[in-house]
Amino acid sequence: MIMGSMERPLPLWTKIVLGAVLITCIYAWEFWPENKPPAPRSPRLPVLTGSAEPISPLPLAVPDLDRRKVALGRKLFNEPKLSHDNTISCANCHQLDHGGVDSMKYSLGIHGQIGNINAPTVYNCGFNFRQFWNGRAATLEEQIDGPVNNPVEMGSNWSEVISKLRKDPSYSAAFPAVYPEGITAENIKDAIGTFERSLVTPNSRFDRFLRGDATAITPEELAGYKLFKRYGCISCHQGINIGGNLYEKLGVMRDYFKAKGNITEADMGRYAVTKDIEDMHVFKVPSLRNVALTAPYLHDGSAATLEQVVKIMGEHQLGLDLPAEDISEIVAFLKTLTGEYEGKPL
Ligand code: HEC
Ligand code: HEC
Questions:
Q1: Nearest Cα residue to atom 34 of ligand 1
Q2: Nearest of 96, 98, 104, 99 to residue 78 by alpha carbon
Q3: Of the ligands numbered here, which is closest to the C-alpha atom of 114?
Q4: Nearest to 97 by CA among 293, 288, 287
Q5: What is the mean pLDDT of the segment spanning 214-228?
Q6: What is the distance between the alpha carbons of residues 122 and 125, in angstroms, rounded to a whole number?
Q7: pLDDT tens-digit profile of 173-208?
Q8: What number of other Cβ atoms are within 10 A of residue 302's Cβ?
């Protein structure tokens, strides 16, 4: 009898009732308030006005850095003992009261030797994805090996620098207070790198505009920004540093080097690092922050004014002969990118 009832299929009405009960259970589970995941308390970080823009403002507060390292790094940045003949410090070529540059086509190193490439600014360099025009240094610390050992810049080496600093009582006291291992190449680089990360220049008029102050820039400057976006300058110069996050060829649309002739190793860009022909004349796109203060322009220091370099960009990067009025509006926009260092206008 029992076996027989199991073999018989369930009547249709039983199936319908069982199905309805199951569906009701699923719905009840799904929509019972406690079973829902809690609504996130802070679903998103506060969105800044204008954050839909392809450029974002620099943080108003300097990143959280060890103040003792920043102070020691500042002293080392200004220290001529980092050079072989005690004449040249980092600050000679990266003058903080001159936009972080030396305003020369090529820099002057020890014994009056002249370099082969224009000095970029150190301001906001902590936001660049790589260091040097050709990106050969991955970090700020690695970058420092360059000038110290470069025969035409500081012409020294770490053992020489360390032995000079060890004889200087101001350093033999200051280092152990911050670094238990005392004066080493690693610690010198760490201190200078930390100082460099503090070289942030927030609160430019354009950043204030991005933060929502519509009166921070003039209608002409705003028109320049719109042209900067419309022409496509923004495709290369964007992000928090308005550059510094991509490699691009100089001469995407029209050859820049043919007319120039006499190509140096510095003109080769990333090719000098990778030896890949695709990288010939490819450079890190420079940051345009504080660009009004960092003339002359381009890796070869060949453009003396912003008007000249914007014209070159139009021709060689966009394949366009920009009208003079557009150039002057774009230049007006570029001049709004000058920020403040330690609360004072640069
Ligand atoms: C003789 C002049 C000179 C001295 C001294 C010098 N620099 Fe430079 N600096 C340059 C030049 C020129 C470049 C570009 C070199 C290149 O890209 O090949 C540069 C590049 C840099 C960069 C890369 C910035 C970027 O956007 O790629 C940083 C950072 C920097 N220097 C920091 C320093 C520090 C720190 C010191 C001291 C340890 C120093 N420099 C000493 C001239 C100098
Ligand atoms: C395809 C990418 C690209 C586009 C588009 C582009 N640039 Fe550039 N820009 C670069 C590169 C790369 C450099 C550095 C070239 C060099 O020095 O070798 C540069 C350099 C500059 C410099 C000089 C910065 C300095 O410190 O020397 C300025 C100013 C500039 N660009 C503005 C503009 C403007 C304005 C536009 C639009 C009209 C524009 N760029 C379009 C890639 C681009």
A1: 90
A2: 96
A3: 1
A4: 293
A5: 98
A6: 5
A7: 999 999 999 999 999 999 999 999 999 999 999 999
A8: 15
Residue 116 has pLDDT above 50, yes or no: yes
Give the separation between CA 237 and CA 166, rounded to whole angstroms: 43
Distances (CA, A) of 322 to 233, 257, 262, 317, 326: 12, 20, 27, 12, 6
How confident is the model over 294-321, as pLDDT tens digits?
999 999 999 999 999 999 999 999 999 9
CA dist., res. 313 & res. 321, Å (int) = 9
Contact between residue 109 and residue 154 where contact means Cβ atoms under 8 Å apart: yes
Residues 6+ apart with CB under 8 A from 153: 83, 88, 93, 107, 109, 110, 115, 146, 147
Q: Which residue has the tokens 């009732």?
A: 17
**Are residues 244 and 287 in contact, defined by beta-carbon separation less than 8 angstroms?**
yes
Check residue 218 and give left, alpha or beta (phi > 0: left; psi -120 to 50: alpha): beta
Has residue 47 got a pLDDT over 90? no
122 close to 341: Cβ distance less than 8 angstroms: no
Closest-CA residue, ligand 1 atom 6, reads: 90
Using the predicted structure, report yes or no on whether residue 11 has a pLDDT greater than 90.
no
Distance from C-alpha of 131 to C-alpha of 227, rounded to nearest angstrom: 29
Residue-wise burial string across 311-342, b where 16 or more C-beta atoms lie within 10 A, e elsewhere: bbbbbbbbebebeeebbbbbbbbbbbbbbbbe
Compute the average pLDDT of residues 80-84: 98
Pocket test for ligand 2, best of 117, 236, 311, 331 (most atoms within 8 A of CB): 236
